[in-house]
Amino acid sequence: MPQLYRFDNDTKIGDISNEQLKFLNDHLMDDTATEFCVNSNTLKCLANFGADPILVGMLEDALGHDSWMTFVWTTDGPPTRWIQVVPAKPGRRTRRA
Questions:
Q1: Residues 65, 37, 12, 4: what is their CA dihedral angle, to the nearest 10 degrees?
Q2: Which has the closest alpha carbon to 52: 14, 75, 19?
Q3: Sorting pLDDT into bands at 50, 70 and 90, what band is 17?
Q4: What are the tens digits of pLDDT across the range 80-94?
Q5: Which distant-in-sequence residues (6+ apart) come within 8 Å of 76 by Cβ?
Q6: DSSP conformational letter for 76
Q7: 10 by DSSP, 3-state: which?
Q8: Helix, strand, or coil here: 62?
């Protein structure tokens, strides 16, 4: 069963059905996409296109007061981040004589 997670903080949004995932893919991205970006206007459009009200409600709750959010879907638990954090001012590792 597909699961939705917010990309920025790995918070689980909820479990969705394969039909709901197909609807998201059909209306937001292509079939191979695992990442979606939405705002409140996008959610209104999805509702107008006939999205499941439970799906729209889950996404609205996850969006909260933010202006937009990126979320991902997965079938095997929380997503693994591939972002490497680099310090702003890396120090020297060795000293010169």
A1: 140
A2: 19
A3: very high
A4: 666 555 555 655 555
A5: none
A6: S
A7: coil
A8: helix
